[in-house]
């Protein structure tokens, strides 16, 4: 669960926020009511990146390298000659 807090409060209570983040809590920091940053547990972010990377690699492996009927090209087709 993500809690939204203003930057001034985050600044005043930064040590407490870090302790709570270590326990798994996440925060969205706002400035003038607009979200500007997120503080999330490092392990959660690393896990999300790993999962996204795996999804991308699975999609790339399933995608053909070239569309049927395209390529391979000859040297003359690759380089224009005047």
Topology:
Elements (H helix, E strand, L loop, with lengths): L1 E5 H6 L1 H9 L3 E6 L2 E6 L2 H21 L12 H4 L4
Parallel strand pairs: 1-2
Antiparallel strand pairs: 2-3
Q: How far apart are the termini?
A: 63 Å
Q: How many strands, which pairing sense, and closed or not: the largest β-sheet?
A: 3 strands, mixed
Which assembly state applies to the chains in this document? single chain
**Mean pLDDT rating:** 88
Number of domains: 1
Q: What would you say the CATH architecture is?
A: 3-Layer(aba) Sandwich
Give the fraction of residues assigned to helices.
40-55%
CATH homologous superfamily classification? YefM-like domain
Strands in their spatial order, largest beta sheet: 1-2-3
Supply Rg. Answer: 24 Å
**DSSP summary: helix tally:** 4
Organism: Siccirubricoccus soli
Function: Antitoxin component of a type II toxin-antitoxin (TA) system.
Pfam families: PhdYeFM_antitox
Family: Belongs to the phD/YefM antitoxin family.
Q: Can you describe this structure?
A:
InterPro entries: Antitoxin_Phd/YefM, phD-YefM_TA_antitoxins, YefM-like_sf. Belongs to the phD/YefM antitoxin family. It comes from Siccirubricoccus soli. β2 and β3 form a beta hairpin. The chain has one domain: YefM-like fold, CATH 3.40.1620.10. It is an alpha+beta fold. It is built from 4 helices and 3 strands, in the order βααββαα. 49% of the residues lie in helices and 21% in strands. Strands 1-2-3 form a 3-stranded mixed β-sheet.
């Amino acid at each position: 669960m993500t809690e939204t807090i203003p930057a001034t409060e985050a600044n005043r209570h930064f040590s407490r926020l870090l302790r709570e983040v270590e326990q798994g809590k996440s925060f969205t920091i706002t400035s003038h009511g607009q979200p500007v940053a997120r503080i999330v547990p490092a392990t959660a972010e690393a896990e999300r990146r790993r999962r996204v990377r795996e999804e991308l690699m699975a999609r790339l492996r399933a995608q053909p390298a070239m569309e049927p009927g395209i390529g391979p090209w000859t040297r003359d087709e690759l380089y224009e000659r005047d």
